[in-house]
Amino acid sequence: MVYAPSPEKQHLRLTSSPLSFPVIPRKLQQTWLASNANSHVPRAAAVAACLLFSLTVISFLRGPATPSAAAHTQQGWPADLSSSSSSNSCHKRSSSRVRLKADGTAGAEARESTEQPASVWRRPALLLLGDSLTELGQAEDGGWSTKLTSAYVRKADVINRGFSGFNTFATLLALCEITDSLSRQPVLLATVWLGANDAALPDRRDGSAHVPLQQYSSHLRNITQQLQAAGVQQVVLLTPPPVNEAAPDAVKPGEGAPPRLFNTTAQYAAAVREAAAQTAALLLDVWQIFVQQQGWQQQLLASDGLHLSKQGQQQVYSALMQLIEKQLPQARPSELPWHHPNWRVLYQDAEKQFAAEQAAYQQEHGDPACCALT
């Protein structure tokens, strides 16, 4: 015979037993006991049913569990960020933002769970302004601009604004557009490498690019001062390289003389040195670096006697990196923080790291880190 206790005894056990839970409403208990007073349900099944109901109620009252950082790494990021707990607005969690220390490293608040290097919200830029000597620096087989881009990967954007055929006059006309496009990105340094076309002889091939020496000097100072006024932290002026008048392709068929002369270009190189001194710009004397190397005509210049060989590209890159190392140590690639957190940090402490980046950017630049992302 199956044991079936009276409703009074069932009520007593459910309300006084260590297995009972106060979250079960008294009325629900009474209703359940009355409906099952004459049933032949085993005692264990009754207790199990109450236990399951209680756990369900407790889970509901506590709300959904928040996924841990480990769960993110296993399940992946939400497919739709707009529906995740992390808002796409850059400004929503202003109260949780933390500051970076003055030296650019993360404060203790931003590094509670990690000791990884600090990262930045918006990476700075290096602007390369010039003519074909700069444009062709982006050559795939080892141009000086290409090498610079590789050296600063994830640290700074290397923005090549070299325009074949440009002189200082054409550059001045384009300068407003160039600086405006960089208005929301800090520019660590800008190289200005002009003069090879300005120095072309007016009565020969490429003569339309000629700019008289005095006007060239004035243009160069104007360009430098406009870059400084636009917020460029440091301007580096490069002298035009020497030309090899005797290069096999320097004179085209039907031409009696080369379009550029060594001695004329030397005067424009001297004007660059003077402009650097007058504007507090740094000087990279490509002219002197080249002429001091034996066999520079064949080793450092291309067959046209004007543009750079692969070795010449390497020489310019090495000289610029040495200048940065000695005179702009704060702009060394090794001194710049990463753009956005290391992937290990990202998975462990993403929101805090991004909040620290945004707070540091806003503190330094005085404007919001960005608008709401979409």
UniProtKB/TrEMBL annotation:
Domain of life the protein comes from: Eukaryota
The SGNH hydrolase-type esterase domain, residue ranges: 128-314
InterPro entries: Iah1-like, SGNH_hydro, SGNH_hydro_sf
Disordered: annotated segments: 69-117
Pfam family, one: Lipase_GDSL_2
Protein name: SGNH hydrolase-type esterase domain-containing protein
Basic residues biased stretches: 90-99
